[in-house]
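Consider the tokenized backbone below.
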């Protein structure tokens, strides 16, 4: 997981050891094709959040690995927290996965401003940005392409110990790197 950051930000000065387990890819991408980035209603992407929460609920039932969610902004974080709260009210068997007393590392949902210092085995990343209802992708896509955006990306991708899954309504080809 650290190889990208080591090469890009640390000039390959970190010493890392390869994993012996190569059955699964460490980084994966889940495309959420619906054009639903809701700029006017708080910089959220409802469909992306719903897809991520559905994936998270499947993962916690099927795996003993710890799971965290990282978002680019607090609005998307709150939306995901609300969706998880609804799921927990509907299904009380989910509660132990979120309870710090009953779980060694409970599920966390953080944004880039408050995730530093937190790690989980699996990180689900929600960028929230994507094409709007008109299919337009604005040049200013969150804090990633602002000054210091590369550091923010580094924080996001290094929270995962074993696996990072990126959820996005945008394909990489839609990003204008200038």
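A designed sequence for it:
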């Amino acid at each position: 997981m650290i190889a990208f950051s080591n090469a890009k930000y640390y000039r390959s000065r970190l010493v890392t050891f390869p994993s012996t387990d190569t059955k699964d890819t460490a980084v994966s991408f889940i495309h959420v094709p619906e054009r639903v980035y809701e700029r006017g209603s708080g910089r959220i992407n409802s469909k992306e959040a719903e897809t991520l929460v559905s994936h998270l609920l499947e993962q916690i039932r099927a795996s003993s690995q710890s799971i965290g969610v990282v978002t680019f902004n607090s609005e998307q974080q709150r939306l995901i927290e609300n969706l998880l709260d609804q799921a927990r009210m509907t299904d009380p068997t989910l509660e132990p996965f979120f309870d710090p007393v009953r779980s060694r590392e409970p599920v966390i949902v953080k944004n880039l401003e408050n995730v530093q210092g937190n790690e989980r085995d699996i990180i689900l990343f929600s960028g929230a940005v994507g094409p709007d209802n008109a299919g337009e992708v604005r040049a200013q896509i969150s804090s990633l392409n602002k000054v210091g955006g590369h550091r923010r990306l580094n924080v996001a991708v290094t929270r995962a110990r074993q696996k990072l899954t990126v959820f996005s309504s945008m394909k990489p080809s839609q990003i204008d790197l200038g």
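The first strand starts at residue 27 and ends at 31.
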